[in-house]
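Appendix C reproduces, verbatim, an entry submitted by the partner laboratory led by Prof. M.T., so that reviewers can inspect both the input and the predicted structure.
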Amino acid sequence: MPDELTVLDYFKALLTPWRGAPPPIPHLDDEQDEVRDYSIEPDFGTARQESILAEDEILAEPTMWELPRAAAIPWRSIAAITSALAAQISLEPGPDRTWGIGMGLYILSTAFAVWGNIKGEWSLPNFPSVRKRIDDLQVRWIYLAVGGFLSLLAFLTLGGNRFTLINFILWISAILIVALGFWKQDDGTSNSLWKRLVDWNGDQKWSLRVSTWSILLFLSAGIIIFFRFYQFASVPPEMVSDHAEKILDIWDVLNGQLGIFFPRNTGREGFQMYLTAFVIKVFGTGYSFISLKIGTILAGLAALPFIYLLGKEIANKRAALFAVLFAGIAYWPNVISRVGLRFSIYPLFVAPTLYFLIRGIRQSRRNDFILAGLFLGLGLHGYTPFRIVPFVILVAVGLYLIHAQSKGYRKQTILFLLILIVVSLMVFLPLLRYWLENPEMFSYRAFTRLGNIESPLPGPAGLILINNIWNAMTMFFWSNGEIWPVSIPHRPALDVLSAALFFLGMILLAVRYVRKRQWLDIFLILSVPLLMLPSILSLAFPSENPTLNRTAGALVPVFLIIGISLEGFVSGFNLRISGTLNKAVIWAVGLLFFLWAGYQNFDLVFNQYQQNYRQSSWNTSEIGGVIRDFTDSIGQQKNAFVVAYPHWVDTRLVGINAGFPTRDFAIWPEDFSKTLNSPGSKMFIVKIDDLESLAKLREIYPDGIVQRFESFDDNKDFFQFFDLSE
């Protein structure tokens, strides 16, 4: 390293991350760390060559701003978190809230956080050491040839938007054989799962060890399951029209119409339909809101273990636990899971895809790229916004390739990426066939938001995009949009503590990137807006941005950042307070933070969200219950009707709640006279202010009886009109 550096030299280094971290600013440090040289290109011809590297040590640079030892109490970190919390409290919904105070306090918080980082008070946990492997790049060509042939047969038989026994077997066989063709036996990805199972089965001595950490994990799982399943049958209380579409699609599946893509209501991928069909078969919950909720809540829970694994991969197990706990109790993922629509499927597949991708890149393991490809392909069968994830993967790999950590591993990383693409394409194959047969339908839903297919853009596209980016990136602190089925309109997407930790985590990641030039730091920052693009790109309907469902994939990096941010904060006490007092302080801080976040998120979901949802939705369950009582007592379902009225109940939902999922109970006033020919007692449900229809019914059935049904909710009463003549 030269003794004399110019400012130009320093800024040139800032603009060329692939050359490693920038040189230190001269004369800031009294002591400098040893520079380790890992610049030698490994020999790709040497099979099974391994090197053990810590990613934060690759081309390790002298610490840029680390000054003499900090004070015993990390007061700068405390000032940073206090300022951030005060900022976020000022941004909470209220009649007089403005940006000014909150923005000023967040700027102050940023200053304290950077200062604390310089002094070593608040540093994010280092990336764990990794074992990077040199791959021999050998594959089983016979397996790939057989798999390719089977995939061709599968593609040819997957026409007509239908799964059959033959094309399904061909498709699954092609996936497995191609994956085996690429699979590397000694990659260590599965840690020899089969061998461990054999050893466990042959072990004659069984023992049960319970550690403090396992107890913590068990308690955390119990808390998370409580938050996700507590009152799940009644929160939220009613279905909306999208639920009717799902129930009808599931009816088709369980009655033999095994679609690949479901074109009803502008088109849906099929994962939720098959998941809910499975729930109905296993739990016997029928065509109901409960069945939809069970499936999506389980999907939301299934993402959490991968968030934990991701946290361990990029930090440590304590940061991983923080991330999972905050994600498990948070209002945002809880609401999108409980609403019973496809939204929780987005993070369900983002989490494992990113986990295997990041682990595969960091450890140069081919098998992880294969697993990432499998989850990527599955995710494309889940929820339309997931289609942004292939681009996120390209960004991740691209960032890695242009940074110094990839030196010596670039060739094999590119080849691993190609393997990932091939494997994901195999899983995507049925949808690929549908896409080629029906390109307009497959793309219609996305393009209605991006372009002017359904509605002209309300302004210049560039200005709308900039405004959408701002609104999306501030949704964590200001407003998560106005879509009431999946949010509390116009409040932040995160609770006060999580928002503050997320903000500071993003700042500290940026600082660490400037200091160490780790590709993963910048990727974590960029992955948040990238995974929110399905919402940001709603150019034709900017009022739909932001929304918690189309941004749901971003909750994976968001809560990881929250976890590593909190870990960095409590670790600041670790370094300065020793012994029992240290542990007591950490536990007290952690418990206080968790109780605060838990209390606010509980209130957000079970009070505020529930009340707003109940007020905004129509009481189709009550109307369905009335019709069910009628058919169980004096009438038949063919003689029960709901008088259609603009902007009132979805009469298909009435049928679903009444136990007749394919019956639409709507009748228009001009068709009243047709009911005279139907023998038996009749019942008409009439909106409380539809007096004109009620008068017409009296004309046709002069002996009819009118009763007012008093709803549980205000302003949702309705009339029951009975004709009891035979």
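The longest helix spans residues 579-616. Additional entries are available on request from the coordinating office.
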